[in-house]
Amino acid sequence: EFRDCFSLFAKEKFITSREQLTKIMRSLAFSPTMFEVDRYFGEHSRDNRIDFATFISILEKQLKVEKCQKDIIEAFQAHDKDGTGFVPASELRHILTQFGDKLTPQEVDKLFRDAGVQGAQVKYENVINCLLTPIQE
Fold first, then answer.
1. Partner residues linked to 86 by β-bridges
2. What is the pLDDT of residue 101?
3. What is the C-alpha to C-alpha distance for residues 28 and 2, in angstroms, rounded to an integer?
4. Could you tell me the residue ranges of all domains in the chain?
5. Domain 80-132 - what CATH class?
6. Which end of the chain is more exposed for a tag (fewer CB within 10 A), N or C?
7. Taking Cα atoms as reference points, which of 100, 97, 15 lies closest to residue 58?
8. What is the second-level CATH architecture of the domain 2-68?
9. Would you place residue 62 in the very low, low, confident or very high pLDDT band (cuts 50, 70, 90)?
10. Is Repeat a UniProt keyword of this protein (predicted)?
11. Residue 137: pLDDT above 50?
């Protein structure tokens, strides 16, 4: 399936643009951001061309990124008992400061500000977007 899709869109046996890379990845049900596509093309193209083997390694990287996103969403959904898309802010603050790679209270405050958290409930889609948005250099 990957080779067929690659061959369909990469007529010259190479991906030669970011647009082509995006189209092929999305045709295969991947959801890269434009930032990710730019990074992949910049890191993996040689003479502005990506061959099939290199394309497969890009897909492997993207698969890991998208699995991480899925895992984060599932973790939030486990705490969203009513399926509303919200979790209690106090519960999220406790989890972020007490488990795993612990955040400081100041880091949680910044995350909440960046995600537009106001009040007792957190729309976790906003938090996920903040967590997964690459930092611009």
1. 123
2. 80
3. 7
4. 2-68, 80-132
5. mainly alpha
6. C
7. 15
8. Orthogonal Bundle (1.10)
9. very high
10. yes
11. no
